[in-house]
Amino acid sequence: MIDVLVIGGGNAALCAALMAREAGASVLMLEAAPRAWRGGNSAHTRNLRCMHDAPQDVLVDAYPEDEYWQDLLKVTGGLTDEKLARLVIRASSNCRGWMRRHGVHFQPPLSGALHVARTNAFFMGGGKALVNAYYRSAEKLGVQIRYETPVQTLDLDDGRFIAARLANGERIAARSCVLAAGGFESNREWLREAWGQVNGEWVADNFLIRGTRYNQGVLLRHMIDAGADMTGDASQSHCVAIDARAPLYDGGICTRVDCVSLGVVVNRQAQRFYDEGEDFWPKRYAIWGRLVAQQPGQIAWSIIDSKAVGRFMPPVFPGTRAGSLPELARAIGLDEPAFMQTLNAFNASCKVGSFDHAVLDDCHTQGVAPQKSHWALPLDTPPFYAYALRPGITFTYLGLKTDETAAVRFGGRASPNLFVAGEMMAGNVLGKGYTAGVGMSIGTAFGRIAGTNAASAARGAADSQRNGALHAAA
Fold first, then answer.
1. Fewer Cβ neighbours under 10 Å: the N or C end of the chain?
2. Rounded (10°) CA dihedral 255, 258, 259, 262
3. How far is 455 from 468, CA to CA, in rounded Å?
4. Where does the FAD-dependent oxidoreductase 2 FAD-binding domain lie (predicted)?
């Protein structure tokens, strides 16, 4: 019998499989996707948010625990388990050496518009390279891997894992199990259920999926039905305002539009609806998908002038360009008088100080709602550009409630041999909001914990089985 069964194929699953194998357990990993699409959303990532008290290899300056915690507290609005959040934060400070031993390489610090050289360690080659490195290491260590193997249900006995059942009816027993199969962001029906209707139209029908098409939430739904303790809100997710021309699935990081803080964002009525300069973009970019989702038709436009060009990572697709603001309004199909009223009011409200996109500067608006807190410059220098935005779902936050052991809980009781990591439990730390790189921090921390504890549970089960056999023989 296999010691540890890992269900999933992304970062958290791989960390669990590697840790369990290093602990001496036999490990089988089941990935729903084909080999070419393995890795789930982790393949689309770029970095890991890391606590450090002093400069460390690719990380500059310092990013202490309390600052990391305050950043997380701010974006979640307090919807986070502090004990588990601090566990993740501390674990982020000492995981890079282990990652390197498994083939992950980090690139030199970045600077410029991303503002994350101090807080985030970037993977050389991005998430795809990280995933491939982990798979190579897992194969070298003897982890068994099966692709195109979706799990439908689990056999459970009073919270104890017995076996997994595949879509083809096959039953796979193991001494312990780690659930790391992702959320339900690719399940359109579940998204409809979570977001509902507005004016007779399903809000979620206008969503694009930034990540994998294989996260259907099948196991998550099964665990809800099985009575597992849950955490999070089904409508909360890592939801980014992305280019409306992005593909339906797997657009990844390149679909982001990063100029929001350098201009204004208007909806279909040509009205602004939120503070574009509230905070640095890496701390606020993941709120904008939800904001756009709440607008009519789930669409908006980011408007900039030529002063912003070169200050942000350019999108893959060029924006709509025009020589004047009225011409831009006509080009994107917005009501010209309403658009000009909004832009003229914004321009007149700008109190220009010392513009500096690298700091929370003193360029702000006064007398207009919503205000723009920082980086408020009049849009007055042609050419002008517009980027159409749609909500892009990366991963969902509804998940299994857990504790510092990563155990799945049933009625408050921890399962002795069923553990959870990654998106399936991220809602314990992320009740809402997001800050760049924290998803990988959560997956890495809890993947490693889950793998270690699953190996320990398997050893205990094997020892009990041997002792029982010896006792019966005697």
1. C
2. 170
3. 20
4. 3-429
With beta carbons less than 8 A apart as the criterion, state whether 50 and 120 touch.
yes
Distance from C-alpha of 363 to C-alpha of 347, rounded to nearest angstrom = 12
Tokens representing residue 385 in the block: 């550009």
How confident is the model over 188-231, as pLDDT tens digits? 999 999 999 988 989 999 999 999 999 999 999 999 999 999 99
CB atoms closer than 10 angstroms to residue 284: 22
Closest by alpha carbon to 389, among 285, 233, 279? 285
Going along the chain from its start, the domains and CATH numbers come out as 2-182+217-236+397-465 (3.50.50.60), 237-392 (3.90.700.10)
Contact of 409 with 388, CB cutoff 8 Å: no
Residue 473 has pLDDT above 70, yes or no: no
Query: What is the average per-residue pLDDT within 46-50?
Result: 96
Distance from C-alpha of 33 to C-alpha of 154, rounded to nearest angstrom: 19
pTM: 0.91
Spatial separation of the C-alpha atoms in residues 280 and 13, rounded to whole Å? 31
Burial 404-414 (b: 16+ CB within 10 A, else e): ebbbbbbeeeb
Residues in CB range of 361: below 8 A, 6 or more apart: 353, 354, 355, 374, 375
Q: Sign of the C-alpha dihedral, residues 306, 265, 378, 320?
A: positive
SS3 label, residue 85: helix
Query: How do residues 115-160 score in pLDDT, each as one tens digit?
Result: 578 999 999 999 999 999 999 999 999 999 999 999 999 999 999 9
> Tokens 């849950």 correspond to what residue?
230
Tell me the average pLDDT across 271-293: 93
Phi, psi angles (nearest 5°) of residue 328: -65, -45
Predicted confidence at residue 199, as pLDDT, reads 86
